[in-house]
Amino acid sequence: MSPNNSLVVVTGATGYVGGRLVPQLLAEGLSVRCVARRPEELSDRWWKDQVEIVQADLSRVDDISVALAGAQTAYYLLHSMSSSEDFAKVESSMAEQFSRVAEKEGLQQIVYLGGLGHDGIDESDHLSSRHRVGRLLASGATPVTELRAAVIIGSGSASFEMLRSLVEVLPFMVVPKWVSQTQCQPVAITDVLEDLVHVLNRPEFYNKTIDIGGPDVVTYQDMMQSYAQVAGLPRRLILPVPVLTPRLSSHWVNLVSPLPIRLARPLIDSLTSDVVVADQGGGCARGRSNQSLEESIGYAMSNVRGQELPTRWSNDRRSNDEFGAAAPDPSDPAWAGGRIFVDRRQEKCDCDSVSAMAVLRSLGGDTGWLTFNWLWALRGFVDKLLGGVGLRRGRRHPTELRVGDPVDFFEAVEVQPGLLRLRAEMKVPGHAWLEWSVDDEGPGCVIEQKAVFVPRGLWGRIYWLSLVPAHAVIFRRMLKAIAKRAETVSVSDT
Q1: Which of 15, 100, 220, 261 has the fewest CB neighbours in a 10 Å radius?
Q2: Closest by alpha carbon to 200, among 69, 21, 55, 17?
Q3: pLDDT tens by residue, the chain, 494 residues
């Protein structure tokens, strides 16, 4: 490991791997310079004040010089798959220029994250480009350490998000035959990051190419079934056929997943090649075992296991140490993180926030939900028939509420002066929360109400969409009734 005063440059700091690597380097006591074409994309990172941020377009030689000036080492985490049709040419040009400038600036090491696979053996354009970039970076005098990974498992990874979308949405799939034949060796993002940090400024890794992968060698069909098992979904019915080409498959993926077609196409092309670690005794630069496929999938799905609203995880990554780099992060692209449905409403209330929170903390039990109580009772009855908790357990106390308390078929998971969050425990095909936040605003306050649902599989999506009309009426009237009750409480206290 390099000394604490050495400057490490992270290119691609706004990307999936780069955004997760920076905190790991800071934890090692390193000085970090983040290079970004649009620095404003780093404005919501909790670590932004602990790093140097340089604006640079790394397709320009002068900008590369600015980015590398005074640095000892650099991480090369750039690709152009989704930004250009001719991505291979763009990637080659950038790598060649980067190598020349690195040599001129006297860099001691370049660490490059490439793609697993064997050079020249049925390579896709994507894998060929990844390997070519590695060779071009190593063409200069600067020592290069190239780590090669196949499918990276973690929330926000393009490969994982494609897997998540397909398995969650489709209980039955007609797939190209290579889905059941091509072998790959997926690796957890946490293991990738540990390897990236481990090889930094270690001469024994200079001018070396290291294959990294998890302990499981599987087909993509196996990966789909593993995801279904970890997610609690029924085993997927998968029918491999010989007529679907990678190009046709990319259009299909574009229809059922949020991945942009420019990213899906080269990604699927690369899935037709076997990508396994050449030395099965290795697979890790650190010399120890990596996470299994099911373990890494479980951590990647942790955004719905932590009793937190997924939409709030990006507010402070420091609170997510339990799940580490596999959990959602502000650096994730807009299409990452799985499907989330949100019903969000606001209501201005002529009372203070204390009165509003008092009403919110008394919901459920004998107080009820202030509107359509007969529908809530019916839902509780149906939940009992389905083997759920129903409404009968009510509340521990009519007005006091603590974290962990039952509130009918909800559980209080966060109780703060201006925030109440309830997690649904009724039988639903997914994970659901109700949340209220209250902010004082001039005379009075504003109550924001959110119903959030993370569907599980196709039925989860059908469940939510079928209830949209009912939710539009129930949630609107409930919020208005809460505001009205809060104003009544406020008046009676004066």
Answers
A1: 261
A2: 21
A3: 545 568 999 998 888 899 899 999 999 999 999 999 888 888 878 899 999 999 999 989 999 999 999 999 999 998 765 455 577 788 889 999 999 999 999 999 999 998 887 665 556 677 888 889 999 999 999 999 999 988 899 887 888 888 888 888 888 888 888 888 888 899 999 999 999 999 999 999 999 999 998 889 999 999 999 999 998 889 999 888 887 666 667 666 766 666 666 676 767 776 777 888 877 556 677 867 788 999 998 888 764 444 333 323 233 333 334 445 666 665 566 556 667 888 999 999 999 999 999 999 999 988 999 999 999 989 888 888 888 777 777 888 888 998 888 898 898 988 999 999 998 888 888 888 999 999 998 889 999 999 988 888 888 889 999 999 999 999 999 999 999 999 987 655 54
**Which residue ranges make up each domain of the chain?**
7-326, 341-493
State the CATH architecture for 341-493.
2-Layer Sandwich (3.30)
Is the pTM higher than 0.85? The answer reads no
The distance from CA 40 to its chain's CA centroid, rounded to whole angstroms, is 20
C-alpha 79/C-alpha 297 separation (Å) is: 24
